[in-house]
Design goal:
One of its GO terms (molecular function) is DNA-binding transcription factor activity. By secondary structure, this protein is an alpha+beta fold. The chain folds into 2 domains: 64 residues, Orthogonal Bundle (Arc Repressor Mutant, subunit A); 143 residues, Chorismate lyase-like (Chorismate lyase, 3-Layer(aba) Sandwich). The strands form 3 sheets. The protein has a 6-stranded antiparallel beta sheet. A two-stranded antiparallel ribbon has the order 1-2. Strands 3-10 form a two-stranded parallel ribbon. Helix 1 crosses helix 3 and helix 2 packs across helix 3. It is elongated and about 70 Å long. The chain starts with a helix and ends in a 10-residue tail after the last strand.
């Protein structure tokens, strides 16, 4: 085993047992080199492994902060409500409804999926709070022709449970686009991040069983609390 691997494993162990608490800085590169009696290059390699495996986050001029390595799995391919995600992973979270109002069709949707400029949508803006911090911002646009209204108590609890149970809608599938982006102004305001921070942005078009488009959503997710998981199977040619 290389020196940097031994250093990596020891620091990893100290993070896992709480010697270096979540949210706190680990010793500096210079201090670690003295602690382990190795070169700073060895420490850099060990830190690179810690970074790649989600144990620390490095910021220029601020050192390396310990991340919460007990992350929640975010299923990218599934069509799962946040309430269902909470239940599946025993996640203690709070939903706050910032906006719930009828708006004109947003410009970026006009002309897509048959949306016209005269249409109305219900716009929901909600934050998902975990351990006192906003970790997810969800923006949703629901077509009023399909979803006439969403009561505030429903917006705070589970919209899909209401749509399927009360409105008897048959929610079927979605197309999604996921990418890492510099945090938006909305994220700066609600997540209290810095202009140099990145979030995962997921855009979704959601459809009913009869292929009717009824919802567009944008989810802004902080990187340090979730990891994204997909099931993949190789497609073999038929012989």
């Amino acid at each position: 085993m290389n020196k940097f691997e031994r250093v990596y494993l020891d620091i990893k162990h100290k993070i896992e047992n709480g010697t270096y608490p979540i949210g706190e800085l680990i010793p500096t590169e210079h201090e670690l080199a003295e602690i382990y009696d190795v070169s700073r290059e060895t420490i850099r390699k060990a830190q690179k492994l810690l970074l790649e495996n989600g144990f620390i986050h490095k910021k220029q001029g601020r050192g390396s902060t310990v991340l919460d390595f007990n992350r929640f799995v975010f299923p990218f391919s599934g069509l799962v409500s946040f309430k269902e995600l909470q239940a599946d992973q025993n996640m203690k979270a709070e939903t706050r409804v910032i906006r719930n109002e009828v708006v004109k069709a947003p410009d970026f949707l006009i002309g897509k999926e048959g949306v016209t400029e005269n249409e109305r949508f219900i716009y929901l803006l909600r934050t998902r709070i975990i351990a006192g911090e906003v970790m997810i911002i969800d923006e949703d646009w629901f077509r009023c022709s399909v979803v006439p209204s969403i009561p505030s108590r429903v917006a705070k609890n589970s919209v899909y449970e209401y749509l399927e149970g009360q409105l008897d809608l048959d929610i079927s599938y979605a197309t999604k686009d996921m990418r890492a982006e510099i945090v938006s102004e909305l994220g700066l305001e609600l997540m209290k991040l810095t202009p140099m921070d990145y979030v995962i942005k997921t855009d979704s078009f959601v459809y009913l069983e009869d292929t009717t488009f009824f919802q567009y959503s944008i989810s802004h997710t902080r990187l340090e609390k979730f990891h994204f998981q997909e099931f993949a199977r190789r497609r073999h040619s038929i012989k």
